[in-house]
Write a structure and sequence with these properties.
9 helices; alpha/beta; three-stranded parallel beta sheet; 39% helix
Length: 256
């Protein structure tokens, strides 16, 4: 998988919030094989030392850190947070979130495009958390984004892929753009379904962090993504409305 000219072997990205302990987080990331983890700026404060243990744990994992602008509700707030994250985490990669609705945590696509344009102009490699809307996708690409991260369902809902038609349409309209399903994934089968649609990766957090056994669940997701990707590459059969016999009828014995 190629994102911003950087190659990754794993197609699973993990969030780092809500785990029962730092040790479980570390073991889950290792079990998942993830090479990218997201980190909220609110975990790390430039003026405090409270988050240094967490930051040391992330560095020890040897993965790429993808800071996010979680909790931002305006383009200005998101841009400022991204600029602070670049200084704190020493990376120009940013998962851009501009939230527009509190109950569903749906992105504010207008603020998202505005912030993406500003940050791309400042040299950021922007990975925007967006909807499956085709027009918004086009505007984000025009703003400088080279990766899109449409939601599967509201953040933390575990509902899976709410709009299969929209996700299929997005994949069909932008066949060369890396697409990552971000948010709403609750089960490994949801992740496999995203990969079967031809998506390039899946980003999730709650489904692993809140599982009874996060480490086992992380491994399950890794296997599901591998299976889903293999199924997509194998060119699966199309569904039918009518039965089709798997055993040929030619040469069948006829009983009088």
């Amino acid at each position: 998988m190629l994102l911003y000219d950087t190659e990754f072997t794993s197609r699973l990205m993990l969030g780092t919030a809500q785990y029962p302990s730092p040790a479980v987080l570390s073991d889950a990331v290792k079990a998942s094989g993830a090479e990218i983890v997201t980190v909220s700026l609110r975990r790390e404060s430039a003026g405090e030392r409270a988050g240094e243990g967490f930051w040391s744990l992330i560095r020890a994992l040897g993965v790429r850190v993808l800071p996010n602008t979680a909790g931002c509700h305006t383009a200005r707030e998101a841009v400022t947070t991204a600029q602070m994250a670049r200084e704190l985490f020493d990376t120009d990669w940013i998962k851009l979130e501009v939230i527009g609705e509190n109950d569903t945590l749906q992105p504010d696509v207008f603020g998202l495009v505005e912030a993406a344009r500003i940050l791309s102009g400042e040299g950021f490699k922007v990975l925007p958390y967006t909807t499956e809307d085709l027009v918004v996708a086009e505007r984000l690409l025009e703003a400088g984004c080279r990766v899109l991260m449409p939601w599967g369902a509201p953040i933390g809902s575990g509902r899976g892929l709410n709009n299969l038609f929209g996700l299929r349409a997005l994949r069909a309209h932008f066949p060369e753009v890396p697409l990552v399903v971000d948010a709403g994934i609750g089960l490994p089968s949801h992740a496999a379904a995203a990969m079967e649609l031809g998506y390039d990766a899946v980003l999730l957090n709650t489904a692993v962090a809140k599982a009874g056994d996060p480490v086992m669940m992380a491994r399950a997701f890794a296997l599901a993504l591998e299976a889903g990707r293999a199924a997509f590459l194998a060119d699966p059969m199309e569904s039918r409305d009518m039965a089709e016999p798997s055993t040929p009828v030619f040469g069948r014995a006829l009983l009088a």
